[in-house]
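hey so u asked for the seq, here:
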Amino acid sequence: MTPNPPTSTYRLQLQPEFPFAAAERAVPHLAGLGVSHLHLSPVLEAVPGSTHGYDVTDHGRVRAELGGEEGLRALAATARAHGLGLVVDLVPNHMAASPRHNQALRAVLRDGPDSPYARWFDVDWRAGDGRLLLPVLPARLPEVRDRFRVADGSLHLDGQEFPLRPGTEDLPLDELLDAQWYRLGWWRLARTELNYRRFFTVSELIGVRVEDPGVFAASHAKIVELVADGVIEGLRIDHPDGLADPQGYLEDLREATGGRCWTVVEKILTGAETLPASWPVAGTTGYDALRRLDGVFTDPLGVAELADVYREFVGKAGDRGGRWEATERRAAYEVVTHDLASETAALTRIAGRICAADPALRDHAPWALRTAVRELLVRVPVYRTYRTGGEEVLTPEAARGAKAAFAVPEEAAAVDVVRDLALGALGDGPEHRAFRARFAQTSSALRAKSVEDTAFYRYTPLLSANEVGGDAGRPAVPVEEFHAYCLRIARDWPGTGTVLSTHDTKRSADVRAAIAVLAQCPEVWAELLAEVSGVPAPDPHVAWTAWQTAFGFGAPDPDRLVPAILKSVREAGLRTSWTEPDAAYERAVAEFAAAGPGRIPLRAASAAAFALEPHIRAHALGALLAQLTMPGVPELYQNTEREYRALVDPDNRAPFAVGADDDHTALVRAALRLRRARPEAFGPGGTYVPLAAEGPAAAHCLAFARSGRVITAVTRLSLRLARAGGWQDTELVLPEGRWTDALDGVREFTGGPATEVKLAELFEERPVALLARVE
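ran it, structure tokens below
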């Protein structure tokens, strides 16, 4: 653990429009909020103009467009002068597949499998014609052939540039193309013919083999240097599930940095899944906390009612049946057979080679192995398997379900082979290890693409539930479950991250808060939809999704709403998609979104809708205060120290800007300053004690104490509370001592067994309370 672990972090999205110098100018404001560390998006060299930095091109240099290493070190010095450290987003899994900018890849394309850089990438040179497929052509090769030109020892096409194998520069074009270590192909070939590992289904990002000691050392030398020099004090590890061996990588990272970094991983935990206890990290980046925070403020009864309204409204325009589990499974089948066809083909090839070399495994048909791979992948209930515990994921029940897809029982034996290979039960040779790693890597890609990027856009009764790490089939979390989660985190992972908004959330916390309130009043939502039915939509599914998005966003803004709604229909893939667009349908969607959700102020459309504003505020402030004071290290995403309404990327990645203070800001400052003043109450060793209210409205209070020195109490489901008559005589017994209101610095309360506090009094001025024990 770093000697200076964060008490809270603040995420800044760096880009050419907001470089290190701009971040340096923001330091005084951010220090004034009370954060202890700035969290920077990736800082290493990336594709020129990149607005996110995850398309790394050179691990050995700090990105010049951001100000280079000099600018980063200057930012660190200014931050340190204000009492702040730096946490950096590290991208070990992939690089940009850009021959012009990625010199390691360029060397492989030039020199082939004998290049010293060939070990950097997962390339199956035995697939196809033995060359690396680059699916970069805008059309089939014959259609663009006349646009190629050779100059300066490279091959050029429409702004793209490719290195040439030595000695081939003077060949006729057709011979020259055939003589390269790579094959240029139409971009559509990536789906079925790709022979390198990529990031999810993004062919422009090529996977990196950091499990190789030489690759790890070369790709981490600069980051390790910056850690050793004290420039960097923490690391956020992007997408560890994409790595061959996440635990092995994290152990190598800890050794390389000398354990001087607070390190968290962007690990998505599904359901009751927990982070492997053996991983040498402080915890996750916080999506597991986000799910509990959103869920504890979501009304379970209203969710069921809203789902009924949704199914009736959408009908056949949505995914068939309108049931989450069925939608999720159908999406998985579509993605594994279509988007990830190259990945399943790679697994089939490896399994086939293993079977051919082992007399006990011969004569499994390729189609049977492919079917077994597909059927087992769709039955992995979490993102992937790890070194241990694979049997709990790839269960015998999953194997039986996979076998049911075979018409001939004898062919179903391929399932046992594939399952044993994925679990490492058939040997530990190079091919066996490759299959085991690739199966897990493909599993994580399948989960992300089928759930986050497909099913979440198809099943939309309550959009606030459709968030990274969320459970659209069970969006509500009971208070008792929230407390149990916090108790476990305080015990096992006290340094884990917690978040409400990130650069990857589909909707910011304030947008989700507004949408979640609809679960408390499904009838109001149905009435609002009826009021705007005069604006014709291409289909009921897009109407529901677009209007709910607009309700959450809160203000008409076609420039931001239309792109988000277009992205939602492309991701859903029901009528159009990124790769098979329906131009007429998309034009109709854009026209509808601009004329309706982008123009009509839905939250002011009726008295009933306007009356929801105080309850939206109660949810937003309650979730924010709970996140800032629960176990873990809270992160604020840029601009969320005030009300922040943002939609899916790129909308949520606009540059940071200082804005006007509001009630969010006051709450953030009070909570974060309290965390810095009393770190022993919140950090490792600090305790979490649930506090239970008593009285008719007890279920509407979420309260807990931290180490007997700080109390958080917030209102949940405030609309249901108001309709039931308010707090009435509901009380909360505070722990012993004198307590002052940290939000106004004036009110005081006395705690003890016989000194109950009326919640009507506690929440008289605002729907949340933060109390600090008078020392």
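Residues 430-458 form the longest helix (29 residues). The chain has a mean pLDDT of 96.
lmk if thats what u needed
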